[in-house]
Amino acid sequence: MHGVGASKKSKHSLQMNRVVQNRGWVAALAVALLVSPVATAQNALVKTTRVVKGAAPIELKGKDLESFRMYPLADAVRYFSGTQFKDFGNMGGITSLNVRSLGSDRMGVFYNGIEVGNTVNGQVDLSKFSLDNVGNLSIYSGQKGDIFQAARDFASSNSIYITTQRPLFQREESSMNFRSQLRLGSNWMVNPSISIENDLGHYVYSTLNVEVMAARNIYPFSYQRQDVSGNALEPYKGKRSNSQLNAVRVEAALHGTIATEAVQSGTWNVFAYHYNDERGIPGQIINYKLYDGERLRERNSFVQSTTRLDINDWYRTQVMLKISSDYTHYSNLQDKLALTDEVFRQYGAYLSSSHQFTLLEGWRASLAYDLQFDMLRKTDALTNTQPKGFSRPRRLVNLLAVASQYQIGGLSLQASALGTYVYNMASKGFDAGKNEMGISPSFLVYYQPFKRIDFFIQAYAKQTYRVPNYSDRYISRLIGEELKPERQRQADFGLGYSRKSHDFVSDFGINADGYYQMVYNKIIAYPRGQLYRWTMTNLGKVQVYGGNASAYVTFAFPGKFLVTSKVQYTYEKSLDVTDVNDNYYKNQIPNVPVHSGSAIVRLSWSGWELNYSFLYAGTRYSEQENIPYNEMQPWYTHDISLSKLFKVGEWRFRAMAEVNNMIGDAFEIVTDYPMPKQTVRLTLTTELQ
C-alpha cells in the first residue's frame, strides 16, 4: 500500500484519466437532473397527486410513539421484531441495531430522509438521537414501498427512518409550543432537554431542541465464563469505572410551505445538528481482567436541506443537500493494550435529485441520482502531524436508481435497479485501490385483496452491493485494507392483518414474515481489545433464513380502562457456509441468537399508565466456532414503569418512574461487556401545545 515507485505513479495517472472521463457524464447527468425540475415548474398545472400503497414497515407513531416518548430512542427500538440490539456497557458504550443478521453497518439510518454516517466504526450510535422531537420512527426490511426516494434509499438492505415532527399548533391563536424534560437515574445520571416550536408566519415554522446528558455510570457487575469443556469457571466480580459520559445535542430546523401558482404544493426544510461528547469507553474483560484506559471525544455536525415539489398530477421532484463534519479523538493509556492517541476528521458533501413521473393511471416511474464525496484525515494528537503511512483517502460515490411501480386495485408491483460506482482516491504515492461498481435490482409485490378488510400480502426479492467503508479499510484491525465488497441476495414473504373498532377489542393486529438471504464476502465486525477500533473480516458465504411474528391487541373496558398487549418472536439461522472443510461450517455466526423476542403489557386509565416489558435473546456464540467455550448464555430483562399525566389549563405534566432489569440478573448483550444489573430512572415532562 505504501510503495512510491514509477509503477504506482503510472497507475495513479491512469486512474486520474479515468475519473476525468467519468466526471464528464456524472456532471452532465447532475446538471440535467437538477435543472429539469426548475424548467418544468414554470409550466406546471395544479392537480391532485395519487397516493400509492407500498410495503408495510414496523413503526412507532401517534399514540404508540407518545407512550415511548419519555424513553431514549435506543430503548424504543429494542422491541421491534427481527432486530438484534447491541449495547456495549450502558451509557458510555455504543448502541446500535442489527436486522436479520446483516450487521449494524448494513442498517441504513436516515434522519429526515438523508442517511447518517459514522467514520469511526461504520455503525451509527443510536444513543446520539432522542425521541423528544420525533414524529415517526420506522424500520423497513428490504426498502420502502414508495419509489419516490433518493438513490441512497435503494442501497440499504434494511433501514431505520427517524423523522422529526413538523410543528402543529393546536391552541387558538397560538404561535409557540414548548416541551421540557428531565431524567434522573442510577449512576448519577442527569439528562435535561428542552424543545421550542414557533410559527414565524408566512407558512414558516422553527424548531429548537437541546439535550444535555451527564452520568458517572459506575456500577458493580458479575462475570462468569466456561472452560473448553463447558465447565463453569470461578465468577468474577468487579466495578465498572470508566463509563463516564458528558454529552450535548443541539438540533434546529426551519420548515416552510411553498404556495405559488406554478406548483400544486411544496415543502422545504433546513436542519442543523450538532453533537458533542466526551466519554470513557467501557473496557473489555480479557482473561478475567478488566481494561479501562480508553477515552473518546466526538463532535458530529451537519446541515441538510430538502425541497419537495408536487408540480402537477404527473410530475414530482425533490432535491436534498447535506454538508457534514465529524471529529473523533481516541486515546488509550492502558499499558496492557496498544498505547494510542489519535484524531480522525471526516468531511462530507451530499447531493440528491429525485424525480417521479405518472405515465398512466396507476403507473409511475422514478429516476434518482445521488453524488457523495467524503475524505478522511488522521493526525497524531500529541504532535498534530499526519502519520507517514496514512494515505488520506477520498471517495466519490455515484448512485443512479431507476424504478417503476404499477397499481391496479389493491395490487402494487414495483421494480427498481440501482447502479453504484465508487471512485477511490489517495495521496500521491499511495495505492487508492480499485474503483468499485455494482448493479442492485429489486422487485416488490404488495397485495391488499379486500377494500374493507385491512389484510395484506407482500413479497420482495432484492440484491445489494456494499463497498467497505473508511472504518473497514483504514481504521479497523487486521485485514481491513484487503476487504472485498459484499454482495447479498434476499427474499421475503409476509402477510398482515389489522382491525380497529369501537368494540371491546378496539385494536388488533398480527404480522408474520419468512425470509431467506445469501451473503457473499460478508463483512463482519466484532470488538477485540479496543471498542472503537473493531476487527473486520470477510466470511466467504453466509446463509440466513428465519421468520418474524408479532401480534398486538387492545381491550377497551368500561370507564376508559385500556389494556394493550404486544408480543414479538424471531427465529433465525445465520450459518457460515464458506467451506465444508472448516470446523465452523454451518455454525451460527457470532453474536446472533436463534431465538429472540419481546412482550409488552400496558394498562391505561385516567392519565395513569403502567408498562411491563420483557426482552429476550437466546444462546449465541462469541466466535465462529460453536463450541461450549464460545457459548454466550441467553439474556433477558424485566422492565416496569409507571406514569401519570396531569393537565392544568393548557399545560400538560407527566411523571414517570421506571426500573430496568428489575430482577437484577447479570447479563451481557455483547461478550465481555457486562451490563448493569439494575437501573432506576425518574422522568418529568412539561408540555404546552
Round the Cα radius of gyration to an integer and report it. Answer: 25 Å
Mean pLDDT: 81
Low-confidence stretches: 1-53, 100-104, 477-481
Q: Roughly what percent helix?
A: under 10%
Number of strands: 37
Structural class: mainly beta
What is the number of helical segments per DSSP (H or I, 4+ residues)? 4
Distance between the termini: 59 Å
Basic shape: globular
Query: Which band does the percent of strand residues land in?
Result: over 45%
Report on the biggest sheet.
Answer: 22 strands, antiparallel, barrel
Key terms for this structure?
22-stranded antiparallel beta barrel; mainly beta; five-stranded mixed beta sheet; single chain; 689 residues
How does this model look, in words?
- This protein is mainly β and about 700 residues long.
- It has 4 helices and 37 strands.
- It has a 22-stranded antiparallel barrel. It has a 5-stranded mixed sheet with strand order 1-6-7-4-5. A two-stranded antiparallel ribbon has the order 2-3.
- A hairpin with a 3-residue loop joins strand 28 and strand 29.
- The chain is globular.
- Mean pLDDT is about 80; it is low at about 1-55, about 100-105 and about 475-480.
Quick take:
With 689 residues, the protein is mostly beta strands. The chain contains four helices and 37 strands.
